[in-house]
């Protein structure tokens, strides 16, 4: 039997209508209970809908590709930074550009993920994501050039010399600047600026292709003179050779995107996600993985001088009478390798 409260009787709680498994009674004000339940349900529903929207955005193809880039280049940045510390902070050795590439990729993919999850497609975010993706070719080519330069420096009189690598280095840096300017002009509201940006991107694509072909020629030259390469550099020349096909795919993607039309899969502002996944991300991931593995197994580089059969360091001291000759030790009176 329910207890009825009089006007002067204080508020009591009732247990008669509460389930037998409950341990906390409710006040005899059912409208307050229903109001709280309704508000909690509304809040929970809004949170659930927001979570579903975020998950749906994350499942979009471009967002999935950006998430894959973050998952790969985050540990790649740590590994390349460790290798850079191991081999020394020198841009000429190539490891610096692997760190630069990882940073650029993380910036671009983070912007893409932010746009997908927050539905914020501002022009600055789009430009940042697109430009950081477009200039990824230069760090790979500069890294390859640094490795080939290190290999050729150990070839002694068979080396191509710094006069061959210095122009390639300058052209690569100039092409990087041209591609950045062209990509920036593409997003300009002026038609003339967009046309100028398109021409600059086409010129950058051709220059990148020329640099790649030059590095291919240097790699072939190094393979021909493989017996003259130091034994400690053999893994590095193998890595450069294995990475060339994947860099070729990346260069083809850059050239096609530079000359692509606005309605095709290689549209600069809106590249087909599957084309970008294979020709851009996959080729870069394989190339970076090969270079990182070579960085772990290759010893630290030290400038050597070969004097009358004795290997000496750059400070002129003999290295305990050891001869840095690669696979075959040469006689003391000879100046080259056999």
UniProtKB/TrEMBL annotation:
The residue ranges crossing the membrane are 95-116, 128-148, 168-187, 207-230, 242-261, 273-297
Keyword vocabulary terms for this entry:
Membrane, Transmembrane, Transmembrane helix
Basic and acidic residues composition bias: residue spans: 308-320
The superkingdom of the source organism is Eukaryota
Residues forming coiled coils: none
- InterPro entries cross-referenced by the UniProt entry: DUF7702 (IPR056119)
Please report the stretch or stretches of sequence annotated as the DUF7702 domain. 65-298
Q: Where is this region: Disordered?
A: 308-338
The name on file for this protein is DUF7702 domain-containing protein
Q: Which organism is it from?
A: Hortaea werneckii
């Amino acid at each position: 039997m329910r207890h009825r409260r009089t006007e002067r009787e204080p508020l009591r709680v009732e247990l008669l209508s509460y389930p037998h498994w409950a341990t906390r009674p409710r006040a005899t004000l059912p409208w307050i209970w229903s109001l709280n339940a309704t508000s909690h349900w509304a809040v929970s529903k809004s949170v659930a809908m927001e979570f579903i929207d975020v998950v749906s955005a994350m499942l979009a193809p471009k967002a999935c590709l950006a998430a894959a880039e973050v998952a790969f280049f985050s540990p790649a940045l740590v590994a390349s930074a460790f290798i850079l510390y191991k081999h020394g902070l020198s841009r000429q050795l190539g490891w610096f550009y692997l760190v630069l590439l990882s940073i650029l990729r993380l910036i671009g993919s983070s912007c893409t993920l932010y746009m997908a999850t927050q539905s914020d497609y501002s022009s600055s975010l789009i430009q940042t994501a697109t430009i950081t993706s477009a200039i990824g070719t230069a760090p790979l080519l500069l890294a390859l050039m640094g490795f080939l330069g290190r290999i050729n420096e150990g070839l002694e009189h068979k080396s191509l010399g710094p006069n061959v690598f210095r122009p390639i280095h300058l052209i690569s840096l100039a092409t990087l600047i041209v591609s950045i300017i062209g990509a920036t002009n593409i997003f300009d509201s002026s038609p003339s600026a967009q046309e100028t940006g398109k021409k600059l991107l086409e010129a950058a694509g051709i220059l990148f292709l020329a640099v790649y072909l030059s590095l291919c020629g240097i790699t072939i030259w190094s393979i021909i003179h493989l017996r003259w390469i130091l034994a400690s550099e053999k893994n590095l020349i193998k890595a450069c050779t294995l990475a060339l096909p994947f860099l070729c795919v990346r260069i083809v993607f850059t050239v096609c995107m530079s000359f692509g039309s606005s309605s095709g899969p290689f549209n600069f502002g809106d590249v087909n996600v599957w084309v970008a996944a294979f020709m851009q991300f996959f080729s870069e991931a394989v190339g970076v993985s090969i270079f990182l593995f070579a960085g772990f197994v290759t010893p630290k580089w030290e400038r050597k001088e070969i004097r009358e059969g004795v290997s000496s360091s750059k400070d002129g001291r003999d290295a305990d009478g050891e001869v840095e000759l690669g696979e075959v030790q040469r006689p003391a009176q000879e100046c080259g390798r056999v």
